[in-house]
Amino acid sequence: MNGQPISGASVGATGRRGRRRGGVRLQALAAGALLLVLTACGGGETGGAKGGQDPASQGSGKPENAASQAVVTILPKDGADSVATSGALKVTAEQGKLSTVTVADSKGAAVEGKIAADGASWSPTAHLSAGTQYKVHAVAKDAEGRESAKDTTFTTLVPKNTFIGHYTPEDGSTVGVGMPVSINFTRGITDPDAVEKAIKVTAEPAVEIEGHWFGNDRLDFRPEEYWAAGTKVTVDLNLDGVEGRPGVYGKQKKTITFTIGRRQVSTVDASAKTMKIERDGSIIKTLPITAGAPSTTTYNGQMVISEKYKVTRMNGATVGFGGEYDIKDVPHAMRLSTSGTFVHGNYWAPKSTFGSSNVSHGCVGLSDTRGAGDSSTPAAWFYERSIIGDVIVVKNSKDKQIQPENGLNGWNMPWSEWTK
């Protein structure tokens, strides 16, 4: 009884195990067949050489989407503050070449710069402004053309000591052909090259314009000859951030424009005691004058009208003549020099003086009336037809030539010396 069930159970168990082993063998055979099929499709090593393998195993063996080898470095570092306005900003690339560098302030104003010929570095071509945040974006490419980029932000220093330049002529003005651009600085400049580089004077029509320093606090610009009538002149003052002297920085960024009016050049002959007014190439009037007396002669040379006063006070004590005169209501006065040379109306000398005698303290006098109210006088006529920047040339006086820094009178310096 017990043996049969056991025997039957054994047979049954054996049959099930046999089926499992048979199933495993069938699966193995099927897998083998599939492997043969896949091997046949793959073509083996010989077939792989014809293009059936994964791309990473072919050619140079370089993986796709690899990182660029180029390394971009930006100085100053990201987040730096109190950065110097000159000499601190530089972008470099290693194992690659710079392709793009942009630097701009928080308002989007770009900083001009240049990538070196070898692509290894970029430097600004001008100084940075003080107390300003800048953003730098730089891109370099490696030998395979893969790009690497870097972005940083930094802020320049806030100076404790500053300077500005007081300039003439005024923005929007119309001036005579002799008008230079003259800038007087509030602090003495010890790095004139840096300051001059930050000032750009251009003209339309174009003409060569050069700057010249008088001492360490005045810089004038002019062309070789008088401006052509109708010229438009633009002055870009980019002094903000310029270190004019150790620890002293400019804080001025401004553009001014002015226009050259008609050409008027008047010639005073101190010996003949006349003044001929030439307008656009023609003599429009000859006026009798009185120049400096024998003991107080008038300077020779080219002089530019720098100021105009319908009535002004002239006190001899302010220009080294002690108490010789103090006239509170000199009419139609136009300044020609810092030292006190004017062309002006004279109501206190007899009319017969003009054209016959030199009696002034160095000025050029024209007949006039007290109060500047008579428009028919020679002084009034000339005053109304003159503008700041007009030229008055004095000749045949028994005095020396005026110094170029005495007023706006740089025309008395040869161009070869002006451009040194």
The value of Rg in angstroms is 43 Å
Structure classification: alpha+beta
Distance between termini?
134 Å
- Strand elements, count: 27
**Overall 3D form:** elongated
Q: How large a portion of the residues is in β-strands, by DSSP E? A: 35-45%
What's the mean pLDDT score? 88
In CATH, the homologous superfamily of the largest domain goes by the name L,D-transpeptidase catalytic domain-like
Please work out how many helical segments DSSP would assign.
5
Q: Percent range for helical residues? A: 10-25%
Number of domains: 3
Strands of the widest sheet, in order across it, are 21-20-19-27-22
Q: In the CATH scheme, what's the topology name of the largest domain?
A: L,D-transpeptidase catalytic domain-like
Low-confidence stretches: 1-60
**Sheet bearing the most strands, described?**
5 strands, mixed
CATH class of the largest domain: Mainly Beta
From the coordinates shown, what is the CATH architecture of the largest domain?
Answer: Beta Barrel
Active site: 344 (proton donor/acceptor), 363 (nucleophile)
Keywords: Acyltransferase, Cell membrane, Cell shape, Cell wall biogenesis/degradation, Lipoprotein, Membrane, Palmitate, Peptidoglycan synthesis, Signal, Transferase
Biased composition (Polar residues): 55-68
GO molecular function, one term: peptidoglycan L,D-transpeptidase activity
